[in-house]
Design goal:
Blueprint lengths: L2 E8 L6 E7 L4 H13 L5 H9 L4 E9 L3 H11 L9
Helix pairs in contact: 1-2
């Protein structure tokens, strides 16, 4: 069964959580590198624009590990629970 990681991206200056994501990457550092690359190559997503706005690499932290049966519900839960996210939909 595939392992899903739900993670946050935080502003390293304010420590505010601004994004909830999910990945199947073995290491969260890989996913963070992908976000950084996208932001620096002008990808027009809310999270990429936010990363360009703060002008530094965010902090990535694991919230929980899930499986293919529950990751979508858990990601939606976290998006609903945390305020001021760059996620623009559930």
């Amino acid at each position: 069964m595939k392992n899903y990681k739900i993670y946050t991206l935080k502003n390293p200056i304010t420590n505010e959580i601004r994004y909830i994501g999910v990945t199947t990457a073995k290491y969260l550092s890989i996913r963070l590198s992908q976000h950084w690359y996208n932001a620096n190559h002008n990808k027009q997503t809310h999270v990429s624009k936010w990363i360009r706005h703060i002008k530094c690499k965010p902090i990535i932290e694991l919230l929980e590990e899930c499986n293919e049966n529950n990751w979508e519900d858990r990601e939606k839960y976290w998006i609903k629970t945390l305020p001021r996210l760059t996620n623009h939909h559930e």
